[in-house]
Amino acid sequence: MADVASWFRNGQDWPLLAPPPRAEWLALLRSSREQLCASLSQCSREEVETVLRARLFQRPDVSTQLGLVFDRPAAVASRIAAAREIMAAGWSHPMAAHAFTIAVLDAQPWEMPIMRDLHTCPEHVMERYLTWLFVRPVYRAIGDDAKYVAWLPEMLDWLKQQVDAPALRQRLAALINTTIRHLDIGMVIYSDVQVRPVLDARAGLIEAMTRQIETLHGSGPGPTALRPANRRIRLGILLRTIMKHPDPQAFCSQFEHFDQERYEIIVYSQDLVDRQCEHDISLYQRLFRFVSAVRTLNGLDVRQMVDRIHADDLDVFVYSYAATIGASPTDLLVSSRLARVQILMNSYVPMSTGFSSFTHVATVAPAPESRASLLGECREEFAEIPRVLLSYLPFVPQPAVRPINRAALRISANAVVLYNGGAVDKIVPVQLDAWVRALARIPGSVLVLAPFNPGWSGVSGATSLHGLIESTCRTHRVDPRRIIVLRELSPRDTHQLYELATVYLGTFPHGSSTSVALALQAGVPAVTRRSPWLRGTGDASIVQSIGLDELVAADADAYVDLTVRLATDAPFRAQVCEKMRAALPTAPFLALSDYGHALQGLFDRLAHESFAYPLPADATGVLPESAERSAA
User: Fold this and answer.
1) What are the tens digits of pLDDT across the range 198-208?
2) Running DSSP on this structure, what letter comes out for residue 214?
3) pLDDT tens digits for 443-454?
4) Could you give the count of Cα atoms lying within 13 Å of 425 in the half-sphere of its Cβ?
């Protein structure tokens, strides 16, 4: 670790590490910001509006991405307070453009008043202002997520009012297009509070947008027409992309075991191509053994997408939900009624959409103590999956691109290694606080983070992450050099990190089921936390499905205690690992055919209840245990 610290101080680039930004670079950034803010006081309103056209303000999230929200001396706090008063008065205030510029440089949108008289905002500034409102937040402290979530319904309801406002009729196209391109409130997934009001407000905004754009409704008859009685169940599934691993493997493992005499499966894909896209011929071959057709939606507008799906006259439409929550063309698409049964699934974070178009959300049967809060979170009905939320392909290590081991990271042979491989957005204050508290109690321990998977957002949040690490470590008097942040790595490389780990740290208050499943298969015990929210149930369902209830903590404090015990109590850790090894051969999350058949049973029941499709001849008519508990 001393060598690593030396490299950081000397500004040398170690190829595996993503070190904190150099102090002199941050100092230059701060001084540049101060000079810009000082010069604004000498500018007229017209000159400030010209400044707002600069390229810097095309990406108004630059301040949060660079971590400047962690740097607020008294002068900055005073400047924010003055800007807040002006922004409360709205765009009609003569210093409104000045105050907005200060807010972009110094603050986050949810910390400032909404400038409600948007119709008086200069036309060329409006897009800048809206884009800034949609910036993904940086949580600096525990409780920031609650403040952001409380602000979102207010902002979304205000935006809905703007869409319907007669005064903005001439700017409606710009308003809607900006919202479609930039709105993303996906960070609500990583909050530890009720988000139903946010999802309902988002649904109201999209309903307002579709009223203004009549073509979004589609021209086909939709799923209400009379259904052919003898036809197989026509099941349509919307995926982000077919060729982005591991999504297609998860899809295949879930649906390739369906009875093809009962189901006709159609896959819809946006055909997204990103840095992790792979063209795997064997996967295409596997896919077409059980899929009747693949429809690409790439290049279509929303009406054309709706018409394409309506033309297939679906009985069941499944949306494999992603972590982006906004008003994108896909969001507008799925807000339409596309099938007789419209069901939501997700690869790792199940949650409601808030859209009335969805009838069900697929979820593992919740614990009795969590049922009330989960029901309160969802507008949809529960479609309960027995035992475990998801199934996963068995972990097969791939040859590494480059070796990652203790020697490469300068970690001593006897150090306890805590590991998390979740994306940077998942590393929120309440979670990092628990991790650092555990570090403080485990002598000689290090925390390894791999938050920059190439399929995610790259290293754009690195500076903010290091700002959070520094402030959290300062609070608990832990040397931040005990936290090793790795650069963007390939999935093959990150698999090696499980071999280094003593304990895997599951994410909370949301879930990261894939990483937990991989850790268990690699023989690493994973600490998870019970959640009152549907989006946080996945991790616990994985470990509990093999009888490891002792790996589920009740709250953050218990999570820390469990981490410390696993790291320091060798007999306890050995007992857990032995129990884990014995249970894995029959683990439900690895029993792909069993899971597929259970999932088909769920869809069989929904088809029977919704349009009287006959149950299979071998159906007993007995509900699974989870449904019996629901009925009780």
Assistant:
1) 999 999 999 99
2) G
3) 999 999 999 876
4) 21
